[in-house]
Amino acid sequence: MDKYLFVGAGGFVGAVLRYWLSGYVQQISDSRLFPVGTLVVNVLGCIVIGFLSQLAEEHGLFRAEARALVFVGILGGFTTFSTFGNETMNLLRNGQNYLAVGNIAGHLILGLAGVWAGRTLSYMIWR
């Protein structure tokens, strides 16, 4: 049960950080056409999860509760793209190249298809 509390607390922190940082970066970039804030958050999340994953694997620095708080909670609330990047990198490191490519293609294609399907469904119901 404690892990759920750590995940929830971390998720709150990560979501607030994402909201603040993406908005701040978008504002200072003065870009109206490209979502720079989202890109920065996603890349930063990938850098942080890569850095911390290496520390966790090489030095065992995170116990289960800390992993729940930081990896699932904070980074999951900050960006799930970091988890996607980390899982894909793990597949590549394990020599599972086809699964890595499938993971990338699946997220990209099914994610875009899901957005399209959701928008289409909403349009059909509430037009």
In short:
The chain has 127 residues and is mainly alpha-helical. The chain has helices at residues 2-29, 36-59, 64-78, 80-93, 97-125. The mean pLDDT is 92.
Number of strands: 0
Biggest sheet, open or closed, and with what strands and sense? none
Tell me the Rg in angstroms. 17 Å
Question: How much beta, percentage-wise?
Answer: under 5%
Helix content: over 70%
Order of helices and strands: HHHHH
Please give a structural write-up.
The structure is a single chain. The relative contact order is 0.13. With 127 residues, the chain is mainly α. It has helices at residues 2-29, 36-59, 64-78, 80-93, 97-125. The protein has a domain at 2-79. α1 (2-29) crosses α2 (36-59) and α2 packs across α4 (80-93).
Write the layout of secondary structure elements.
Layout: H1 2-29, H2 36-59, H3 64-78, H4 80-93, H5 97-125
Helix pairs in contact: 1-2, 1-3, 2-4, 3-4, 4-5
Provide the descriptors you would attach to this structure in a database record.
127 residues; mainly alpha; 5 helices
